[in-house]
Amino acid sequence: IDPVFLWPLLAATIGFSLLFGAVQMHADVAEFQAVVQHEDEADPLSPDMLTLRVAPAGDARDLAPRIAASVKAAVGVTPLVEIVAKDAIYDPERSMKSKRLLDLRAR
Question: Is residue 64 exposed (0-12), middle (13-18) or buried (19+ Cβ within 10 Å)?
Answer without folding.
Answer: middle
